[in-house]
Every structure is written in structure tokens, then in C-alpha cells.
């Protein structure tokens, strides 16, 4: 108990600032009193909900995407990080002595520590015609259940908060956790009735005598709802029919839920609304994972006078490639269209649902902030299309990128083109054609590869680009936009620069790697090729568009010191935490900006942020800009603190620590954040997407199981200074037929019209880590 109280105190401290800023205050509330729901006044919008009001956010067991469902920590976070009209949902189960508890399932398996406390007491019970084995709450008194603790039952979520939170009752949620808006869901009334426990009696005779804020009561059992229809005050409490999967059988009528939904008028006779899995409204093709056309269910239900609440939302469960791993985009599909809007969401991540409703739905994202960080692409919009292709660059421009990037590679015959790595495996279809050309180049990477400098440009053009994902080896694999797997064209450096000028982007970043190796071993002058291409495109004689030259080699940057129009960026690949004065002075000799890993700015351990390092302070003190690389939308790349929400990560780096540029594979996400009113640091905002404070979520974990903090070293001069570049040494050509000429613009340039995407499978990449630094 003392451990739990300590954790609650910590949580109250970490969310206090969020509470003050996320709610519109009309004056201080008495200590301990919940903030009334009427305090939040939604701005006028033309919602297509049943009554035209703003959709409500229903937190399933609180913020159950972070903490164990229905734990005090989960309810407190949800209540504090959402608007004051958010609803907290409790799945009501019952103890042997007929008292209610909030648990996600009738079985205690996988959601509590029952196995350790009552190891050999599993039983088999019949639930709605199915024999189910496990531990059941109905076999234990409330006092016995009080010996158990909650655990996280979704394996992709952190176990760091397990074994510390007791099983709550509805009255403890209200009295101790400050929940003022409660939704009670009764999933197994018939089962409990067979054990002489009446959910209806409990709710009417016990709960409503204690509190008066049970605003919603739901159940998948029609018999229970008809019983409650005679007992509740319909002016204060809504009855909602919880619809299960289409082929599941409703126990009162023995009809499938799919068939019951065909008679919405009949449902209206015992309920004011329905809860349906989101696939009832917008189906997802099970084979392709792309969206299918929306059904008419919401419109039909509204015509019948029923409100519709969509369930099944979670940031860490991917449903469709259409959303590009951006959870807000999924919510918006259900509320921001010309046909309908659901009346609410049941979600494990209520903060994200609130963001979608308040910050983005029915809103023109036209906020302009001059003080925001630059949005810099990482191989174009490489989360949507194959990196460094014409389609990726066009998408990046459409998505609002400020700076588009080209990492320059060289073909055997001297053509400079854009691709993330000189190894063509994974980024192209080279492995299916040129495996015989695979070699080992330890100066570049440990693994064997098929390298661009061993193929002519004609040979490279015979390949297709290939979209890649850093998480395609995860379990389950997470791939990107398979319809566009091999779409797009390779882009020459000349074509890239011409495209940038035509599209009038704010600037370009030219990334140069492996220059010493290419010069000494392959006779290829990548620095000369870049300088010539920029000069030919007159980028050295203009100031309209910014030109950044980035390299991890100080000698490369030195080659451009006589061109003041170019901003030199030193790329530091290793994880660091600080830059001593002598190192900063050395950096200033070569660059005015630095790109570092995001974990160099905010350290992480086992997917928890630990602290903000000193690197930003050290570099800013010398007027050196700091860019971070690279952000991704997939939840596996996002620390737990950010609630599996890429927008919160952007907010943390932009507002929380104040970087000067954000390098991202999904520029649309960063652009969406900066164009939203919720990114504005203004106190009068009803709701803002707030940055997290690094290390605060880790502080809530149990000391006994807390992961060790890893401290990165400080930068040294040796990390910065490289030997002078060797001269370009000609080598004999081993393959005839190369012309050495730059390919025609139609082959390597970026066309104005983007090609349509077609259907294929996923890409392959070589690594998958939970916390990615690059």
C-alpha cells in the first residue's frame, strides 16, 4: 500500500502542470473535488453526431495503453491528460460476496497476480454456452481479491507497472481517483445471475446511493438492459447496447449481433445508443490491410435515434496502412468526413483521441509559427514511399517538409544519385538480380552488400526501388505501405536539385558519406560531384533556398568552407550526452549546425526516457544549431512516455527541449503538429499537445524492477576531427560499356505528376530495435 501511495503522489506531481494547462479554469476548485464536466465548453463546430455535439472520449479502464487497465494510475492519467468531459469506463465484474470490481475480463488470468496467490484453484465454468477454464472473480471475496495486483495484459506494453496496483471498485475510482464521469459496462450479467449475483441490484441499490455520476451503463446482453430500462433515470443515465462480433450470439435472444443490428428500431426500445467495433463502421480488408468504403451504420443508427460509439482504438495496434502509423489519422476518419461522425470513442489512449477531436477535426490547419523547428526529411517521405524516389520527394513536399534531403551515392561510372546507403540490398531489388556482385567492404559496413559503386548507372536503373521498414523483423513484422513497395524512380543528384528549385522548397540537405573510401579505393570524387551539381544548378549563387551540406567527416565539410551560401552540418552518429568547450570550439571550425541522434538529446533506457542531456545546452551556448534524427511514426520506435503517439514526441523535442530541426521519415506528422493550434504555447488554449518531462514516467515504476539508466559519453575532439581527404585515385574499369554521362533528366529527374501506386508486398531491412537512434 505504501508503494502504491508513493506512486500516486509521483503521478499527481508529474501531471499537475498538464492539469493546469489542459483544462479551462473558471476558478480554483475545492481541494479534492473533481472538476465538473460543464467546465469545458467546446468551440462551435458542425459535428455530424446525433445531436450535433462534440464526440466524447471514453477511456477504457483509464489510460490502459500505458498502465494496467482500471488501475489508479490509469484513471488518474486519463482524467488529467484529457478534457474534463472525458468518460472513464469500468468493465464491471463481481466478487463472491456480490461486490463490484473493475476488471477487463471475467477471468483473472493474465490481468492479475492470481496465479501466485491462488496457484492451484483454476476451475471450468460455462459462460454463455462456452466452457472456459481459469480463475474467476466470482470464486473469491472482495477481501481475497484485495490480495491481488493488476498486470498489463497486452504483451507489447510495458510490464514496469505490474504488481503494484490493487483491483479497484467503482466507489474507490470515484472517491480516491477523482473520477467524476463514469461508464459502467456489464459484460456478463447472465453468468453472474447464475451465481445469484444481480448486477442490476448492485448498481441501483448500492452504487447510485453512493454516487450520482454513472452517466452511462452498457451491456452486450439485452435482458440486462431491459431490466435497467425500468430502474434508471434516463435524464441522467444513458443505456447503451454493446455490440460484439457479428457472428457472436447474444444470450437473451440467441440471435447473432449481426442480425440484431439489422433492426435498429428495436434496439432503440431499450437503449439510447450502441457501441460497435470500429470495423462495423469502416472495414479493413483482412488481406491487404487497406480501408474499404464506410458502411451506412452510423447514418442508419442516427436516423433511428441511436448514438454510436466506436470501440477498439489503441495507438499500438495497427489497423490499416492508410493511416501511415499516425493514430490521430484513424480517429479523424470516423469524425471528420462529409457523411457522418461517431458520437464517441472507446480507447486505450484517451489523450490521442482528445487531440484528434480538439486539435485536428473540422479545423483548418493553417497556423503559422515562425519560431518552430525545421522539418527535414529522412530520404524524403520514406515512411510512405521507397526512400529517395521521386514519389517520396513529391510526398514530402505535399506533406509540408521544409528541407528535403539527398544522401549522395555514386555509381561505378560516376553518376551521383540519391539513396540512403551505398548498399543496394533492402533499398532496391538488387538482391534478385546482382547477388553475384555481393562483396565485403569493412570500411563501410560489417555485412556483405551489393554496392552502388560496383554497378553502372544503367545497371542500377534496371532495378526497382524498394520501400523498407526498420521493423520488418519484429514480431509481428511491421511493414510500410505494401501497395507502393516498388513504386517510384531513382533520382539523380541533378534531378533532385532541379526538383527542389521547381517546387520552391525552403531548402535542401545534401548528405555526403564514405568520401575517403570512394576517392582512394574506387576513384570516385563524390565531393567534386556534389560541388559541380550545386554550381550547375546555381545554388552557390542564390540565397532564396537554403543549402545544407551534411557529413560525418569534418574534411568533407572543409571542402565547402569557401562557399558561404552553404550551411555546414556535422553529423554525429554515436550517442553522446554533452559537448565540452574544447569540442564545441572544434566543431565551429567546420560547421554551424550538428545533427545528433534523438537519444543524444533525450536519453532512453528500455523504451523509457530518462533525462534530457546537456548536448543541446552546450551547442546552443556556442550558437550551433541542433537537429535530431530520425523520427518515425511506428510505436516501436517511440518511448513509452510519448503514449505511442508520434505527435507527443514531436511536441517534446520542439517545445520541451527546443531543437532547431526535426529529421523525420513522416514529415506530414510534424507538419500537422506545427499547423495545429494545439502546438501554440499559449495559456488560454483549452487543450494543448504537451511535451513530456523526460524521466517522469520512469519515476513511477517500482524501484525493484526499474531498468538501469545508461549514460552516454561526452563528445571528444577525436569524434570530430578526421584526416584530410585522399586524392581521387583512378582505378581500372572492370566492366565495359559505361558512358560516364549523367542520365537524361526524364530517367533521374522528378516528374511533376506522381505515378499511381500499385499492389505488392512488404520490404526487407536488416535491423529492428525498440529505441532507434538514427
UniProtKB/TrEMBL annotation:
Q: What class of enzyme is it?
A: hydrolase
Taxonomic source organism:
Citrus x changshan-huyou
Q: Does the keyword Glycoprotein apply?
A: yes
Q: What is its EC number?
A: 3.1.4.46
A single GO BP term for this record reads: glycerol metabolic process
| GO molecular function annotation | glycerophosphodiester phosphodiesterase activity
List each copy of the GP-PDE domain by range: 55-357, 373-674
Q: Which catalysed reactions does the entry list for this protein?
A: a sn-glycero-3-phosphodiester + H2O = an alcohol + sn-glycerol 3-phosphate + H(+)
Identify the keywords attached in UniProt to this record, alphabetized. Answer: Glycerol metabolism, Glycoprotein, Hydrolase, Signal
Which PROSITE patterns does the record associate with it? Answer: GP_PDE
By what name is this protein known?
Answer: glycerophosphodiester phosphodiesterase
* UniProt-listed PANTHER family: GLYCEROPHOSPHODIESTER PHOSPHODIESTERASE GDPDL6-RELATED (PTHR43620:SF44), GLYCEROPHOSPHORYL DIESTER PHOSPHODIESTERASE (PTHR43620)
By its UniProt entry, which Pfam families does this protein fall under? Answer: GDPD
Statement: the UniProt record of this protein carries the keyword Signal: yes
Entry-linked InterPro entries: GP_PDE_dom (IPR030395), PLC-like_Pdiesterase_TIM-brl (IPR017946)
N-terminal signal peptide? 1-20
